[in-house]
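Continuing the series of single-chain predictions for the mutant panel. This is the parent chain; the variants come on the following pages.
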Amino acid sequence: MKLNILTFENLPIFSQLEIEEALLKTDDKNWVILNSGSPKAIVMGISTKPTDVINLPLALEKKVPIIQRFTGGGTVVVDENTLFVTFIIQKNDIVFELFPKNILEWIFATLKKSINIKDFLLIDNDFTIAQKKVGGNAQYIKKDRFVHHTSFLWDYHEESMEYLLHPPKEPSYRKGRSHLDFLTKLSFHISKQNFFDAIISFLQLNYLIDLNPKIPIFPPHKKHTCAPKL
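Parent structure:
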């Protein structure tokens, strides 16, 4: 399988989501997107109601952008310390059935072999270190193609968790814990550069790689990524 790897620094998450959606819907190649340094934003799944998961008065007071991505998944606060990893893969290039659990397990296995962090686990739909969440996942599956993206907490500002309400639905392993008790940081285990270098090195050993190729010029398409009007 050939993978085209795009690496970005300081690319806003809204711009990254636009690129992801365009590559998913108007291209037929396989892509990996690695990004860090996004300005602060709150990102939620396509079917999420802002009032259910976001402290809207605080977010509006602080003028933090709220973005509704075109995939499912939970709500996260991202900033310069969030590490983004996205895979966009053609169905014909994989050996498993195109179901969410199979995709998640394949992504997890790839990352676990790449970064080699002790107690890096897949629990429910989250990536964890031991029993604490370190990465949130979201997917969009087409008939012949899928996108899977992960937001990793390399570090985070504790006050940023004040933008998030306790979600109406939570994984069983959370056990009612607050955001601060439920989350952990990749920075305890690996540097940002080593994290991305490890992923690229693993992919180079196992796939045909084109690093930072020119991004296609996308034809117009209907976009689902949007900033809700609040």
